């Protein structure tokens, strides 16, 4: 007889009870030592591993990583419960209430034309919620976490800024700004070739930051996530480089001894090989 599959509620309750047991006095020493602060890096790592699983397209791997990621908020809620601050029910009820409240076009009588209106309503409702809690935003950029990866943070900051009119009139203006920033970077590098000049290095870093921030705005205009775009580029680079390493090894060549011409030849071969696969 095939055992019945647990309902979502039963499966979640089982996970919560396991986490509670791990944190109990007779539970796991490692789990009992954890705090909200100590788990910060684990939360980030599990999120990144889940992204890798999504990119890999392996359902079994993704299922496993989603489980690892799900464990993190349950563990945080258990720690808070032991401190009598809140528990997992508060977390679940909170997010459920928020989703209903911020989707009046689904759970209410509001009518929207498209996803753009959905986001506009979401922001308006979010602002109202903060006002009711007495939270006053001192800047239109408030609410963008400083812990976000830099490209994601740049994208979110620029999205906030354009809502009050801080925007280029068209894509041509953004591209012109990119060329301007690249020119300034080139000038700074040409004027300061000494890598040991800390002041010069700082100026170059600032100009490079300006280039990157402008590139993020190009991504925003084209509705491209710059974090994912760069991630995909790094993935392609790794695949091609590893292909080059394998090809060089088969030819009995050492990478550090290759000429520029040999590098180019191996790179093009690797690129074509991967593109064909």
> Helix and strand string, N-terminal first?
HHHHHHHHHHHH
Strand portion, in percent? under 5%
**How far apart lie the N and C ends?**
45 Å
Average pLDDT rating: 94
Classify the secondary structure makeup into a structural class.
mainly alpha
Could you say which overall geometry the principal axes of the C-alpha atoms support? extended
Largest sheet: none
Question: In angstroms, what is the radius of gyration?
Answer: 25 Å
- Count of helical regions: 12
- Regions with pLDDT < 50 over 5+ consecutive residues? none
Number of strands: 0
Helix content range: over 70%
Question: Could you characterize what this model shows?
Answer:
The protein has 277 residues and is mostly helical. It has helices spanning 8-22, 29-33, 40-56, 59-82, 88-101, 104-107, 115-132, 150-162, 171-191, 198-221, 226-250, 260-276. The chain is extended and about 65 Å long. The mean pLDDT is 94.
Quick gist of this model?
The chain has 277 residues and is an all-alpha fold. The chain has helices spanning 8-22, 29-33, 40-56, 59-82, 88-101, 104-107, 115-132, 150-162, 171-191, 198-221, 226-250, 260-276.
């Amino acid at each position: 007889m095939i055992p019945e599959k647990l309902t979502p509620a039963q499966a979640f309750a089982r996970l919560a009870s396991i986490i509670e047991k791990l944190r109990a006095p007779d539970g796991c020493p490692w789990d009992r030592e954890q705090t909200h602060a100590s788990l910060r890096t684990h939360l980030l790592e599990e999120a990144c591993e889940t992204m890798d699983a999504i990119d890999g397209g392996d359902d079994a791997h993704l299922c496993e990583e989603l489980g690892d990621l799900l464990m993190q908020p349950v563990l945080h809620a258990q720690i808070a419960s032991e401190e009598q601050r809140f528990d997992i029910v508060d977390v679940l009820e909170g997010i459920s209430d928020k989703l209903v409240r911020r989707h009046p076009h689904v759970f209410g009588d509001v009518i929207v034309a498209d996803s753009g209106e959905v986001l506009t309503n979401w922001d308006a409702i979010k602002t109202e919620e903060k006002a009711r809690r007495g939270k006053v935003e001192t800047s239109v950029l408030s609410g963008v976490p400083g812990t976000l990866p830099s490209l994601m943070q740049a994208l979110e900051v620029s999205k906030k800024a354009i809502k009050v009119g801080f925007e280029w009139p068209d894509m041509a203006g953004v591209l012109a700004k990119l060329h301007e920033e690249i020119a300034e970077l080139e000038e700074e590098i040409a004027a300061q070739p000494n890598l040991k000049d800390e002041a010069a290095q700082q100026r170059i870093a600032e100009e490079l930051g300006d280039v990157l921030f402008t590139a993020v705005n190009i991504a925003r205009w084209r509705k491209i996530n710059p974090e994912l775009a760069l991630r995909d580029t790094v993935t392609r680079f790794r695949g091609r480089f590893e292909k080059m390493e394998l090809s060089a090894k088969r030819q009995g060549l050492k990478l550090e001894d290759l000429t520029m011409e040999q590098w180019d030849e191996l790179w093009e071969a690797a690129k074509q090989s991967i593109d064909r696969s």
